[in-house]
Specification:
Keywords: Signal. InterPro entries: FrzH/put_lumazine-bd, NTF2-like_dom_sf. The longest helix has about 45 residues, at about 1-50. This protein has about 160 residues and is an alpha+beta fold. It has helices spanning about 1-50, 50-60, 80-90; strands at about 60-70, 75-80, 105-115, 115-125, 130-140, 145-150. It is globular. The chain has a single domain (about 30-150), classed as Nuclear Transport Factor 2, Chain: A (Roll), CATH 3.10.450. It has a 6-stranded mixed beta sheet with strand order 2-1-6-5-4-3.
């Protein structure tokens, strides 16, 4: 009887540990996928390279950004606005960016709940933080996509 109880206890602990490890693995996989979509669709696609396939694959067609211009004014930008601006930058020779002009980022905080995530991202040029973005993401059947964003324009951080 004691042997049966011991075997059952060890089996239960092994299954629990395995489930916990899988849960941590899924969380890591989601975090890595979110970091990848922010890098490829947003940072590289919109700013560094202008590679439109990355943009269209990584942003929801309903994406909107709320840009705060000052304390009492904001404006909405859609993914269509961003695509148009990026294509204009490519056409005028302003993309791809090189060297110190390249944009980089750092995820300061990432919260994931099932298929919804929120990322607090420092947007940097030449290694210097220009502003902080708050990016909302959703995990569609095709993967994580950016669905909304808020940031303050022209607010270089110290």
């Amino acid at each position: 009887m004691k042997l049966r109880f011991l075997i059952l206890t060890v089996f239960t602990i092994a299954i629990s540990s395995s489930s916990f490890a899988q849960s941590k693995s899924r969380a890591y996989d989601n975090a890595a996928a979110i970091e990848e979509v922010i890098r490829e669709a947003y940072i590289n696609g919109v700013y560094n390279t202008g590679y439109m396939l990355s943009v269209t694959q990584g942003f929801s067609p309903d994406f909107t950004a709320i840009v705060f211009e000052d304390k009492d004014q904001s404006r909405l930008e859609t993914i269509e606005d961003w695509i148009k601006k990026t294509e204009q930058n490519k056409a005028s020779g302003n993309l791809p960016l090189k060297g110190e002009q390249e944009v980089s980022f750092s995820i300061v905080k990432l919260e994931i709940s099932n298929n919804i995530a929120n990322a607090c991202v420092q947007f940097m040029v030449g290694g210097k933080v220009q502003h902080t973005d708050f990016i909302g993401l959703y995990k569609f059947s095709t993967g994580w996509k950016l669905v909304n964003m808020m940031y303050e324009e022209g607010q270089e951080e110290k």
